[in-house]
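INTERNAL AUDIT FORM
Audit reference: QA-55
Scope: verify that the stored structure record matches its stored sequence.
Auditor: D.O.
Record contents follow.
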Amino acid sequence: NEIIIKKHSDNGDLVFHTELAGSPFFVVKGKEIGSATIEEAAIATASYSRAWKAGLQSADVYYVKPEQVSKEAKSGEYISKGAFMIYGRKNFVPVKIELAVGITGKGKLMGGPAAAVAKSCAKHVKLIQGDNKPSDAAKKIAKILGLGSGYLDEIIRAMPAGEFKVVSKGDEK
């Protein structure tokens, strides 16, 4: 998280985070960031946080400007190692926790918010919280997407910590 904030965020960007301890930071680059991009970044932030493993169906994500994020506490306060202080107004976005994994036209694996994956991948599957181990879910994803077992580690890296249910077209609730 520290590297993401220090090296990859600039003025005009947006930094996304949840209130959950250990949540990842996501940075959206650019001066003009639309509402769909904000929604997708918020879904990714929530889904890759501890919310997935905890079984939460939704989470509140907030975004701030990079200059609002600091490793320094206010005078007289203590900040634990690895923690950040957020100063100023937080903009909250409530989101549903869900992801998708797909294969792009260039043969690259992509994981992220279902809407973003659907835009970039002709073949994709939706992931929701379930009771399948990551390895079992990865095998099912590889089969549905027509990928060999050489993709299993890459598929698992595209998934958050926790358990899954793979939802293909026709299986959706």
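Auditor finding: record pair retrieved intact. The radius of gyration is 17 Å.
Action required: none
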